[in-house]
Write a structure and sequence with these properties.
The protein is mainly alpha-helical and about 230 residues long. It contains 11 helices and 3 strands; from the N terminus they run ααβααββααααααα.
Amino acid sequence: MAEQLTGLADDRALLGRTSTAERVADILRSRIAEGFFPPGTRLSEDSIGGALGVSRNTLREAFRLLTHERLLVHELNRGVFVRVLTVEDVEDIYRTRRLVECAVVRGLGEPPYAVEGLAEAVAEGQRAAHEGDWKVLGTANIHFHRELVALAASERTDELMRSVFAELRLAFHVVDDPRALHEPYLARNQQILEVLGAGDRGSAERLLAVYLEDSLERVVEVYRRRVTGATGTP
C-alpha cells in the first residue's frame, strides 16, 4: 500500500486549488485502471485522503461516483474495495464493446480517417512488446480501442467507453499471463489500422467484430479459471 500511496501523493498537484470529488475520482479511476489498486484491494479513507490532501467528505463522494461506475463496491462494516468482476460482468463489457466500437467504425464518413492516434497506440504496443513489458502492452491495447472510439468525435461515447475500458482493466489485472492475453492482438491492431488508413471501413468493422469475439472467448476462458480457482468454486 505504501507504494500506491506515494503515487497518489504525486497526483496531488493535479487537484489544483479547486479540488473536487470529480477530480479525485478521475485520479483514482486512472490508478485503478493502471493496476495500482488491484481487484479486491480495500481503499483506506485516511490513507488516500491524506495522500491526496482532500477531506473525508470529498473522498467519500469520489468513492460514490466510482461505485456508480462499478469500479468500487461498498461492503457493510468492512469498507470500500476495488471490485472483483464476475464472468457475467466480463461478457457484458464485451457486449457493450461490440455494440459501440463496431458502430463507430460503421458510422465513419468518407475517408481519409484521422488514424494518427491509432498509429501512436500501435507504436506504443510495439515498443512495449520489444521491451517485454506486457502490462504496458495491455495499456497500449486499451489506448488503441480508446482512439478507435474517439473517431466518432462524440464526448458522450468517449465518456461511456472510458468507464467500460476501466472495468475491462479490472479483468485484465486478474490474468496471470498478460503476454499470452495481449501479444496476439498487436498484429491485429496493426491490420485494423492499415485497412482504416486505406479508407476501408467495411473491412475494418469485420476485422474488429472477429477480434472482439476472439478476445472475449480468450479472456473469459482465463478469467473463469483464475476466479474459480481463487474462490474455490467448483
